[in-house]
Design brief:
90% helix, transmembrane, proton-transporting ATP synthase activity, rotational mechanism, ATP_synth_b/b'su_bac/chlpt, membrane
Length: 184
């Protein structure tokens, strides 16, 4: 192994006479090596690099086109959404106005219904009072009639004797007989 290492180290010590060898002066050989490498890369890599750049350019253009299409669709959807929003806002305003109108209408209907119910209850109360008054009046009449009848019977019984009583009964029977003949 020492021989291999010695041979590489000794390359730097070769004389510069007209023979072929390696130049170990980095500053002198670097620009030449770089020019050769770049020339080879440009010559052989020009097509590959051109294809890569064209592909990259197409991908960028496709991405831009897709972005423009997406932007256009997004703008279109935004306009549709704004139109729907305007429509919904108009409907909401309509519902609000109609709702307030409906509430007012229902309020008036409720007030009218309550007024009618109160009126019916008042009428029912008045009818009940009138009925109760008539019942009380009829009851009082019956009691007065009963008392008057009892008083009259008492007076008649005390004033009438048997003979007068029999004549009164006969006269009443006669009146009923006459009435029966008239009806027949």
């Amino acid at each position: 192994m020492k021989n291999v290492t010695d041979s590489f180290v000794s390359l730097g010590y070769w004389p510069f006479a007209g023979s072929f060898g390696f130049n170990t002066d980095i500053l002198a050989t670097n620009p030449i090596n770089l020019t050769v490498v770049l020339g080879v890369l440009i010559f052989f890599g020009k097509g590959v690099l051109s294809d890569l750049l064209d592909n990259r350019k197409q991908r960028i253009l496709n991405t831009i086109r897709n972005s423009e299409e997406l932007r256009g669709r997004a703008i279109e959807q935004l306009e549709k959404a704004r139109a729907r929003l305007r429509k919904v806002e108009m409907e909401a305003d309509e519902f609000r106005v109609n709702g307030y109108s409906e509430i007012e209408r229902e309020k008036l209907n409720l007030i009218n219904s309550t007024y009618k119910t109160l009126e019916q209850l008042e009428n029912y109360k008045n009818e009940t009072i009138h009925f109760e008054q008539q019942s009380a009046i009829n009851e009082v009449r019956q009691q007065i009639f009963q008392q008057a009848l009892e008083g009259a019977l008492g007076t008649l019984n005390s004033c009438l004797n048997n003979e007068l009583h029999l004549r009164t009964i006969s006269a009443n029977i006669g009146m009923f007989g006459t009435m029966k003949e008239i009806i027949d």
